[in-house]
Design goal:
The protein is of the alpha/beta class. The chain has a domain of 152 residues: P-loop containing nucleotide triphosphate hydrolases (Rossmann fold). The chain has ten helices and ten strands. It is globular, with a radius of gyration of 19 Å. The protein binds adenosine-5'-triphosphate. GO terms for molecular function: ATP binding. Keywords: ATP-binding, Cell membrane, Membrane, Nucleotide-binding, Translocase, Transport. Pfam families: ABC_tran (PF00005).
Length: 272
């Protein structure tokens, strides 16, 4: 269904994503892991056409999507909804309107600007909120909700687009563990119940292991691991995060050697 072929994105001399290729069959839940700067966000943003690729092709259901322009590009963007770490809601707007903004690419700008929605659209937004367990929040301003609730609103907005693929860029990085679990459970439900592909950049290994069918590890713009969660051994994780052999997932920062401290501290956080 999805084939990524030799995709590269350069910023000046630096390749943020460096000639990556992989395929995904069917509605899998795929996690992308890697240290900060590995190229995870750049890849998701290229898929969604928020960032242009320097070279390469991405085929989805036989259609090349990196070359799409104008209306076709916007249509693709609504078929592959994006969820961000910082939710990207309109804070002062009520929850239901935020969800309805998922239709942005599918209707005239003026209607969106003046918040004019059909009864059918409003009903659908409320049904989605109900499905995600936050229907009672519909009239509240988005900014009044907890982080976990806001991320569920962002997922509801994504579902409003009825996307084939959901791209989630560090969807739980700003959440406490309990809210993180609710959000990941929600994404998993959507993946399993609706058959929508989910590709999520994740910052903790245990989340990748728990929720993903497949994990892709990136380092310096390249894919250095592509396998199932049970193939993701501590040694493989060390390679991905650039930590040395003294490293293990249960280690604490005090157990780490002090040279290259920032890198190790980062790797430790990832491995925790
Ligand atoms: N717009 C840009 N201009 C210049 N360099 C960029 C730009 N966007 C990303 N980069 C660089 O590309 C590399 C990959 O960044 P990217 O954000 O994709 O990594 P990441 O794995 O998502 O990291 P993080 O987890 O911190 O978001 C980094 O070196 C980053 O500085």
């Amino acid at each position: 269904m999805l084939t990524v072929s030799h995709v590269t994105r350069r910023f000046g001399q630096k390749a943020a994503v460096d000639d990556i290729s992989f395929s995904i069959e069917g509605p899998a839940f795929v996690g992308i892991i890697g240290r900060s700067g590995a190229g995870k966000s750049t890849f998701l943003r290229m898929m969604n056409r928020l960032t242009e690729a320097t070279s390469g092709e991405i085929h989805v259901a036989g259609r090349e999507i990196l070359g799409l322009q104008g209306a076709a590009r916007r249509q693709w963007q609504s078929q592959c909804a994006m969820i961000f770490q910082q939710f990207n809601l309109v804070p002062r707007l009520d929850v239901a309107s935020n969800v309805l903004h998922g239709l942005l690419n599918r209707r005239p700008t003026l209607s969106t600007l003046f918040n004019i929605w059909s009864d059918a659209d409003i009903l659908r937004a409320l049904e989605i909120l109900d499905r995600l367990g936050i229907a009672e929040q519909a009239p509240k301003r988005a900014e009044a909700l907890s982080g976990g609730q806001q991320q569920r609103v962002a997922i509801a907005r994504a579902l409003m687009q009825d996307p084939q693929i959901i791209l989630a860029d560090e969807p739980i990085a700003s959440l406490d563990p309990m809210n993180a679990q609710v959000v990941m459970d929600t994404l998993k439900r959507i993946n399993v119940e609706d058959g929508r592909m989910v590709i999520a950049n994740l910052h903790t290994l245990d989340t990748a292991r728990r929720y993903c069918d497949r994990v892709i590890g990136m380092r310096d713009g390249r894919i250095v691991f592509d396998g199932t969660p049970d193939q993701l051994s501590a040694g493989v994780a060390r390679d991905i995060y650039g930590a040395d052999a003294s490293f293990n997932e249960a280690s604490t920062s005090t157990a780490l050697p002090s040279d290259h401290a920032p890198d190790r501290a980062y790797a430790e956080r990832m491995l925790a």
